[in-house]
Hints:
This protein is of the alpha/beta class. It has two domains: 275 residues, Aldehyde Dehydrogenase, Chain A, domain 1 (3-Layer(aba) Sandwich), CATH 3.40.605; 183 residues, 3-Layer(aba) Sandwich (Aldehyde Dehydrogenase, Chain A, domain 2), CATH 3.40.309.10. The protein is built from 14 helices and 20 strands. The chain has a seven-stranded mixed β-sheet, with helices on both faces. A six-stranded mixed β-sheet has the order 9-8-7-10-11-19, sandwiched between helices. Strand 1 and strand 2 form a beta hairpin. Helix 2 packs across helix 6. The radius of gyration is 24 Å and the shape is globular. The model has no long low-confidence stretch (mean pLDDT 97).
Amino acid sequence: MPAASIRHQLFIDGRFVDAESGETLASINPHDNTPIAAVALAGKADVDKAVAAANRAFPAWSRMAAADRGRILLRLADLIEADAEALAQLESLDTGHPIRDSRALDVPRTAACFRYFGGMADKFQGETIPVEAGFLNYTLREPLGVVGQIVPWNFPLMFTSWKMAPALAAGNCIVMKPSEITPLSSLRIAELMQEAGLPDGVVNMVPGLGSEVGQYIAEHPGIAKVAFTGSTATGRRVVQASAANLKKVQLELGGKGPNIVFEDAFLPAAVNGSAWAIFHNQGQACIAGSRLVLHEKIADAFLDKFIALAQSIRLGNPLDPETEMGPLTSALHRDRVLAYVDLAREQGGEVLAGGRAPGGELARGCYVEPTIVRARSYRDRVAQEEVFGPFVTVLTFKDDAEAMEIANGTDYGLGSGLWTGNLQRAHRMARDLHAGMVWINSYKRVNPGSPFGGVGQSGYGREMGFDAMREYTHVKSVWVNVDAQIPPHFKR
Ligand code: TXE
């Protein structure tokens, strides 16, 4: 489906509507910086309408049989699969994801997430607790109410499903703010949801500016929880704003993933997996393996192969099936990434590959070459700050203790990986890594059943799996006097 034929309005109370202000914002194709569509730009008045609609829809939606809610999500998963090629094209056009990745990863993972939580809806249950004689005690897992969800621009389609699916399965209603940079695939999901039979008001979409609409969602007294994916700095602002009504907060923030290669690793797999870890989606992933930590004995052999592989990656139009790396998602972000190349040089780092925006026909777009930088120390800014681009720093170590010092030597704690043939070392490292996720002899695996989230400055709360259902419910404890004789407390 061409971008021109999808809806570009806000989605409130089951209808596509213009923004109250009439304002729009151009969605840009990062391949050549041309506008794709003018998308309605929500303001505070639109958020108020969306929150009111969601609160109206909540009683019926939360009391609907869980299996019926699940059936709607299962239908949505089927519709996504039926629409797969159009969705993949739309995602690639709006974000710059290579079409081969949108087809093989983004769209199937989005459908899989809705399907998983569709099946989960009637399997997530409370408990009975063995309390004192004469009493029955049981718990209810109750939805929170209206949840605000703020989705970033790096995986808009997939993250829409990661946030929505568990929230809906648990019986919540949603006010979602897709990124102002990449709203198109989320709006298409809204259309498909209607087709799947989602009642009006259960999901509302208000693409708008983070500083205005995102901030307002985080503050809003009609919203019970805010789930945010984005930078650590903005995450802090969300927490502060949430204090207004003490809303529950879930944060999936930045990362600086260590990817450790030991001397006993199977190098061909480690080289390929490490390239995937950083260059997939142009490095715009919070879990990217952006710090390559190499044992000094294999560092040179590894780097020879790794640099050659990086330099052979095919950059190009995301819609070309041969393209392996597309542009970054915005010009602003490309400039941010390139500024880190200058910083690396200023701080005595050595650029081993890439480091430039390519010329020729790609010069019009937001492209950056796969970039490999040897840092002087793990304390250098380029080895500490999230660059969020095709930019990997290289550090070497002598022994396991030094590998761990480097790996845990940032404030972040999200994704991490290690490559080794030694079973004991693998599990010891997995135990000691300060991270929400560890991949052993692999990197960047995700599955709707497996908890996803971080520790430290990478945030708190988990997406996916049963943990996500816990995040979107609160637990109520119910006490029933079955046959207890309670002596009067006050004897009169
Ligand atoms: O992030 P912001 P930006 C990191 C990555 C990147 C950096 C900056 O390092 O280089 O952040 O990107 C909304 N209240 N990640 O400037 O500002 C905004 O509309 C509420 C990591 O895009 O955090 C967008 O939808 N919301 C990452 C989202 O927050 C606000 C994904 C992200 O924007 C807001 C993206 C506010 N005050 C960036 N201000 C990941 N964890 O995957 C902005 N937003």
